[in-house]
Amino acid sequence: MTSGDRASGRMDLSLALSDNERTRPIIDGQVGVEGARLFTTTVHPSEMFWRQLKYAEFDVSEMSMSSLLIAASRGDYRWVGIPVFTSRMFFHTRIMVRADRGINVPADLKGKRVAVPEYQQTSAIWSRGVLQNEFGVNQRDIEWFMERTPDMSHGGSTGFKPPEGVKLNQIPKSTNIGEMMVKGEVDATLLYLTNTNLVDRSKIDIDREPSIKPLFADGAAEGWRYYAKTGIYPINHTLVMRRDLYEKHPWIALNLYAAFLKAKERGLEVARKNLAPWFETGALNPDAAKGLRADPLAYGVRAARPVLETIAQYVHEQGLTPARVAVEDVFAKSTLDV
């Protein structure tokens, strides 16, 4: 959808986003994009990326950082990145394990059966990268089980094949990760998703299962340790726009960036205000307050380059791209200096 609005001189853009405090000001219309009129769809990322990669439904959307890199490495340049990072998390702290399999530290995952919604999803790549670089657990030390089928996966549109030496099993459509975890048919899962969407199938709340526990008993402490050591707060999603649209109207890239930056700042301002009573009463100490004033969610290629370079390296190291994709090859040229 790129027809212009003759009355206002604005361009119509179809937009797909997930809902969080940084995107909500865009979704609810508090923040607009200069020169554009947005028609926004709010959808879960699992489904959004599948629809975008397979059907190219939206002019602008969030996109899996790994899928953008993998697509580019295979000559698929339909999308150009805008350095807006709508999702970050210490993904390895979300690993869940069976409590009866003797898995107490990451090294115990060697030789185990581990599930994952999709092998090439960014969160899985981050977790495997951390397991290897921090704890010496290689992806080939594990037998993998993947829930998403080729026709309903991101990899189905990017030519995914299991990396050499990796044993990867397809979970039958008759079951899912949650059921296999509860039955003990797998020993762990790298990530677990129960959100209703067209791609993911698991529904059981495994947090309520006494037979299942987090690999890291104190996930927050592990996240703090990892960040203190590496300075990396992993990026999961970026923003993309259709490359043909960008080449025809290059001004849109920086206008999108400016709007999403404003939306993020507005969302974080609300978050800080909501925490004010905790700071005032001392429930959060001054050091915590000082940390909150820093921005671990920074947008822009310059601010996020170490994180972007790391995920590009991990994607290549794990055999998902034939060569390391350069950051400059996936982001709009006009955004490389912001």
Keywords:
six-stranded mixed sheet; D-Maltodextrin-Binding Protein, domain 2; 338 residues; 2 domains; 36% helix; 18% strand; alpha/beta
Overview of this structure, please?
The protein is 36% helix and 18% strand. It has two domains: 4-88 and 234-335, D-Maltodextrin-Binding Protein, domain 2 (3-Layer(aba) Sandwich); 91-230, D-Maltodextrin-Binding Protein, domain 2, CATH 3.40.190. The protein is globular. The protein is of the alpha/beta class.
Task: List the SSEs and their pairings.
Blueprint: E1 4-5, E2 10-17, H1 24-27, E3 36-42, H2 45-55, E4 60-64, H3 65-73, E5 79-88, E6 96-98, E7 113-116, H4 122-135, E8 143-146, H5 155-158, E9 167-170, H6 177-183, E10 188-189, E11 212-214, H7 219-230, E12 235-242, H8 243-248, H9 251-274, H10 276-280, H11 286-293, H12 301-317
Parallel strand pairs: 2-3, 2-4, 7-8, 7-10, 8-9
Antiparallel strand pairs: 1-2, 4-12, 5-12, 6-10, 6-11
Beta-sheet strand percentage?
15-25%
Mind telling me which CATH architecture of the largest domain this is?
3-Layer(aba) Sandwich
CATH topology-level fold name of the largest domain? D-Maltodextrin-Binding Protein, domain 2
**Please, what is the CATH homologous superfamily of the largest domain?**
Periplasmic binding protein-like II
CATH C-level class of the largest domain is: Alpha Beta
- Indicate the overall shape: globular
Q: Write down the Rg.
A: 20 Å
Task: Give the helix level as a range of percent.
Answer: 25-40%
Number of strands: 12
Let me know the largest β-sheet.
6 strands, mixed
Mean pLDDT: 93
**Sequence stretches where pLDDT stays below 50 over 5 or more residues:** none
